[in-house]
């Protein structure tokens, strides 16, 4: 049986951050140089009495000088450029020259944090085998539907390198292992706390809960204003259509950064008081304005919404047949609408899925089937239509000039049980534990920054 083409949601979000310039530089122009004649310039050069020059060694403008030295470890301009290129790839290059320079500063700050994390892990004899890094890199390449070799070429063509991604992977994995060794053993979550959360969930049956993404930026009272401005730039880029997941991975300082900022399903009251009213007002796919929270600033995105312990419509498993009618390359809009009207008329009263093949042949359409398609994996518009359709009926035609006209016929639907989303004891325990580890990790990294010797060049 042929599967329907997978329909995925476009990631909504991106990030561009500002920072206070590291230093100010005065510009000095040579006195009177603008009015010299050629003979005067030649005389001035002769006055230097330079001998014939023999250059020993080589000069390569692509070999960059150090941008920062972190406890003796160097971060070069090339490192910053390669990591910046990853962000630009995620943003499809839609970043102005001015924003790009601002973004470089945030990339540098993140690379400094990575150095501190890797250094601390090494001091505690926490290492990651290179084969594990290579496996994770291969998974990233697979996410781009490319082999490792093709992905390497793709990165280089876009100004980055495999080494930049592998360094980020190495930092994430070593830091997480260090936290499991030095932080997590000292985190306590009592059974009574877990049971209390489960009781509250049962009492909240029918209330809304939210799938939330976060980008957290730490701030002190002195830097709060600047970080709020940084976060405002994130929101601007995100609402412009860049990838929230990619920018959360690059810039968020929460432990959820490794998951693209995904906090999973939460109820509003589980969030900080500052975020509680905001998440309830967001539409699906919406992004909040920057929100001051203890320790910094947060931007949240609402990925999805459902009701606690109620049947989740998006979890329904659908059995569908899809009819696809190709459009001629040079078809006018008027004729395309006529074809769509004819397709709708043919499928409107087809009499159920049993006649789908016959109808497809009569209008010259191709037909494919899928018996295991999750409702939530479809675009929101189609979810709304299919959620109200009786079995055996068809959607209105949809599509594009490139993809042709399509109609989905609903052949069956398996709805989840009402209590399917009740988390287990272990799941609740893990969520509480992760939240406390996350808070401790922020303090840990803050202390590493405070004690670090960082020389900016």
User: What would CATH call the class of the largest domain?
Assistant: Alpha Beta
Please compute the radius of gyration using only Cα atoms.
28 Å
With helices defined by DSSP (H or I, 4 residues minimum), what is the helix count?
14
What fraction of residues sit in β-strands?
15-25%
Structural class determined from secondary elements:
alpha+beta
Number of strands: 11
Order of the strands making up the biggest sheet: 4-3-6-5
Q: Which CATH-level-2 architecture of the largest domain?
A: Roll
SSE pattern, N- to C-terminal:
HEEHHHHHHEHHEHEEEHHEHEEHE
- Unreliable residue runs: 1-38, 44-65
- How far is the first residue's CA from the last residue's CA? 61 Å
* CATH topology group of the largest domain: Chitinase A, domain 3
């Amino acid at each position: 049986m042929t599967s329907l083409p997978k329909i995925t949601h476009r990631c909504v979000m991106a990030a561009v951050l500002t920072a206070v310039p590291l230093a100010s530089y005065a510009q000095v122009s040579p006195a009177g140089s603008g009015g010299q004649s050629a003979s005067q310039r030649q005389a001035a050069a002769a006055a230097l009495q330079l001998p014939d020059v023999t250059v020993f060694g080589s000069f390569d403008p692509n070999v960059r000088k150090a941008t920062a030295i972190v406890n003796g470890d160097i971060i070069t301009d090339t490192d910053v450029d390669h990591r910046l290129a990853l962000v630009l790839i995620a943003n499809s290059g839609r970043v102005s020259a001015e924003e790009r320079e601002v973004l470089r500063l945030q990339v540098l700050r993140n690379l400094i944090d990575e150095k501190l994390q890797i250094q601390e892990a090494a001091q505690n004899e926490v290492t990651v085998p290179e084969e594990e890094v290579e496996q994770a890199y291969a998974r990233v390449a697979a996410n781009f539907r490319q082999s490792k070799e093709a992905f390497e070429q793709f990165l280089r063509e876009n100004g980055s390198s495999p080494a930049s991604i592998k360094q980020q992977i190495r930092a994430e994995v070593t830091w997480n292992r260090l936290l499991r060794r030095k932080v997590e053993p000292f985190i306590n979550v009592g059974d009574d706390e877990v049971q209390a959360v489960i009781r509250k969930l049962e009492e909240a049956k029918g209330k809304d809960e939210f799938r939330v993404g976060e980008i957290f930026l730490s701030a002190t009272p002195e830097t709060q204003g600047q970080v709020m401005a940084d976060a405002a730039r994130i929101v601007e880029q995100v609402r412009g259509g860049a990838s929230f997941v990619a920018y959360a991975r690059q810039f968020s300082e929460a432990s959820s950064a490794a998951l693209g900022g995904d906090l999973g399903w939460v109820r509003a009251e589980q969030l900080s008081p500052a975020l509680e009213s905001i998440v309830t007002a967001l539409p699906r796919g919406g992004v909040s304005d920057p929100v001051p929270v203890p320790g910094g600033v947060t931007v949240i995105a609402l990925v999805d919404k459902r009701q606690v312990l109620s049947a989740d419509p998006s979890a329904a498993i659908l059995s569908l047949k899809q009819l696809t009618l190709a459009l001629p390359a040079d078809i006018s809009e008027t004729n395309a609408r006529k074809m769509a009207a004819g397709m709708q008329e043919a499928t409107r009263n087809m009499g159920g899925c049993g006649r789908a093949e016959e109808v497809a042949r009569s209008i010259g359409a191709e037909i494919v089937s899928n018996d295991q398609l999750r409702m939530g994996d479809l675009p929101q518009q189609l979810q709304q239509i299919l959620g109200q359709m009786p079995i055996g009926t068809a959607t209105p035609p949809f599509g594009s000039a490139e993809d042709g006209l399509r109609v989905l016929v609903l052949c069956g639907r398996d709805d989840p049980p009402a209590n399917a989303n009740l988390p287990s004891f272990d799941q609740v325990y893990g969520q509480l534990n992760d939240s406390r580890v996350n808070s401790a990790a922020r303090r840990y990294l803050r202390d590493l920054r405070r004690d670090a010797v960082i020389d900016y060049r």
